[in-house]
Amino acid sequence: MLPQQFQKITTEGVRGMILARIDTGSTNWVNSVAMRMTSMQASEEYAWLGSSPALREFIGGRTPAELRELSFIISNKDFETSLRIQSKDMRRDKLGMIQVRINQLADRALDHPAKLLSTLILNGAASTCYDGQYFFDTDHSEGDSGAQSNDLSRAIVDKDAPTGDEMADSIMECIMAMYGFKDDRGEPMNQSASEFTVMVPPSYLKAAMLAVKAILGTGGKSATLPTLSADFTINVVVNPRLSAWTDKFVLIRTDEAAKPFILQEEDIPDVVALGDGTEYEQLHKEHLYGIDWTGNVGYGYWQFACLMTHTTA
Q1: pTM of the entire predicted model
Q2: Residue range 147-153: mean pLDDT, rounded
Q3: Contact 211, 168 (CB under 8 A)
Q4: N or C: which end of the chain has fewer CB within 10 A?
């Protein structure tokens, strides 16, 4: 048998590379902020039911409540990415370079949900969610919840360059606002929250890291929240796709089964391989490898996300 560096790369070999790479999973923050929903049709309708009533003293019999219902539809879209490889390169010891390109192709597919979700986050202050309000808005209201805002703002010295202390105060304001959110029965929605993610553009990364260390007491300062349990966590995620934001960030609750966003997909990405012996190869003297993905994203529970915009004092 020839040593590996002299073996011809086969279509099945390349397909195996793609599948192995896809098995590594999507961008690590996606699952923490989005509910993954499997779709079996062109679109899915989500009946966003209201909350169940709280317990009451049993006096005079039962008083069953009706669920308030709101619904919305997410339609699937087809996406693809493809790569051509010359047949001669498949024959000539090109394993190293071909594998790099194949891994890049698979990484593009894995990163696609993060791209869609990032666009959703960027547009959250101007796109409606299930209650008919903008996802990030100042006047959400459902049933007995009263008016509620997950679109916050604070004045700081320089809105484009917050200090660690200013960022800590802004993060805490978002967390406190989230603890105050009520459902349509007037009951707290986030009373058990203990894990949050601060998603920032690159320009806010340093301030966010300093802020979280200060809040949790790991940066040489006393913890801002000394009474919280040891498993209370705040994670920082830098998202380069939010670079258009120069004065804002988003805080997301990540320890609840329900999420602020929905990732709807028909199935795992499908691999297309037109290679050895196919009519395509005979006509073009090249191989074609592609990845197809069908799905879409949408807004879920706005109560699990807060947008903070800084203004200059």
Answers
A1: 0.85
A2: 98
A3: yes
A4: N
